[in-house]
Design goal:
Helices cover 0% and strands 52% of the residues. The chain has strands at residues 3-7, 10-13, 18-25, 34-39, 46-51, 58-60, 68-73, 78-83, 92-98, 103-104, 108-113. Strands 2, 4, 5, 6, 9, 10 and 11 form a seven-stranded mixed sheet that branches.
Amino acid sequence: QVQLVESGGGLVRSGGSLLLSCAASGFTFRDFPMAWYRQSPGKEREYVASIGLTSADAIYAGSVKGRFTASRDNANDILYLQMNNLEPGDTAKYYCHRPSGNHWGQGTQVTVSS
């Protein structure tokens, strides 16, 4: 079955960087667009970025554009989210998402201190 496992979250200071990974299995990863979402306590889940079948085909939410970069390694079935210049407002649990079939990972926590 489809499995999405995120990793790479942690605690970082404002202005710092983190690289999130999402290991995909149970399907032909290279054939599916993917996305990243995030959710803070008490808030709705929020769209962060989506990526087509190649790393060149990515779009971003306005709040992260220019700071975050989504990419994918189709040879190893991994989705990435490089997050630079992090702000306290980026604190959330980050989720990997396959829109087709509405599959979600378990999330990885990112906490940015000021």
